[in-house]
Amino acid sequence: MPFALQIADQTAQLYQRLGAATGNEADTKTALEMIKRQIDRYAKNVVYYQSLSPSQYASLPNLDQYIDRYHFMDLIDDYGYAGGDIEALEKELSLAGVNLQRQVSFRQAIMQQQYGSGAEAPPASSDATEPAE
């Protein structure tokens, strides 16, 4: 993960772990709020990326392509893992113009490249709340 994205994500993950370990709901709430702010921030980027032609998309900097292909879905996974309402989030993102099926397709293509044609991505729904091992 590019360093520019690490600070907010790692801080939110630490709050989530701290809340889970201590039972402090304020820490868990802080984690959810931090992750949600990141999702809201990058949702606007994803809507923009969706509007690009293939040649325009190919000219994006690596960081933008990383956000689109990996980071955005990782944030959604983190949100679910921290106890966020994935179904409500999916509806909100859909209303904002995010095509989550496109994001899931990216994840499936990446997994197939890495693990072969039998690999499937976890669904972008409330079932995708457990962290990957």
Please characterize this protein's 3D structure.
This protein has 133 residues and is an all-alpha fold. Helix content is 73%, strand content 0%. Helix 2 packs antiparallel against helix 4 and helix 4 crosses helix 6.
Q: Calculate the mean pLDDT score and round it.
A: 86
Molecular shape: globular
The secondary-structure class comes to: mainly alpha
Assembly of the depicted chains:
single chain
Q: How would you characterize the largest beta sheet?
A: none
Features:
single chain; 133 residues; mainly alpha; 6 helices; 0% strand; disordered C terminus
In short:
The chain has six helices and no strands. With 133 residues, the protein is an all-alpha fold.
